[in-house]
Structure formats: C-alpha cells, structure tokens
Amino acid sequence: MPRQTYTAGEAARRLGISLDTLRRWDRQGRIRTGRDRANRRVVPASEVERLRGGSLHHDLSARNRLVGTVREVKIEGLLAQVELEAGPFRIVSVITREAAEELALEPGDSATAVVKATSIMVER
Question: Is the domain defined by 5-52 classed in CATH 1.10.1660.10?
C-alpha cells in the first residue's frame, strides 16, 4: 500500500525545502497539513506530489527552487544569459550555450531556477 502521509521533515526533504520553509508555507496556506496523535505536523503524500509537479523527481541537493517564466534568453558565444520572472523576483542566470539549447528555452516557457549557494556577495 502506498504511503499516505509524511512527517514534516520527510516532506521537506522530498520537496527540497527546509523545515522552516514548510512551516511557513503551512502558516500561509500554501500547503495542506494535518496533525498526528502526538500533535506533530504531517503532510499528505498527495500534497507532496502536487507541489513536486506530479511524479517529477529531483536528483539535486539544492533546496531552493523558484518556478517562473522565461522572459529572455541571450545566446552569445559559449554562454547564454537566461532571465526568469518568478513571482516578485527577477532571476538572471548564465549557463552554457549547450545547456540552453538542450533545454530549448524560449520566452514564455515555464522553467525553474534551482539555487544552491553557500554565499552571495554584493559590494559597491
């Protein structure tokens, strides 16, 4: 019999997000959760699959995924600059030309920015 619920920690790992993010989503109503007999938060397997986009499996360890819309793709030489609009965020990524061509990114397409960084520095 397939699994019906996940603990909050298990659900967060399957979604590639932190436990704090899962709790925040619960407070915001972005994810439906329940409580077990010990009053611990549990997440229905159907919610995890809904948020993962069905049966898509992510083999990456990155936790931050921002789903958005491709606004612009500039290809020049060996590199491509991809601009995504993800909610209130504008994300610009520089990837290889080969990767951009393999993804066949076009303005208006749905895409996900996967962010994995230990530090981001901006200086003026």
Answer: yes
Q: What are phi and psi of 44, to 5 degrees?
A: -60, 140
DSSP string, 65-123: EEEEEEEEEEEETTEEEEEEEETTEEEEEEEEHHHHHHHT--TT-EEEEEE--S-----
Largest CA distance in the chain: 59
Q: Encode pLDDT of 32-68 as tens digits.
A: 999 999 999 999 988 888 887 654 445 666 667 788 8
b/e code 79-117 from CB counts within 10 Å (16+ = b): ebebbbeeeeeeeeeebeeeebeeeebeeeeebebeeee
Contact 30, 87 (CB under 8 A): no
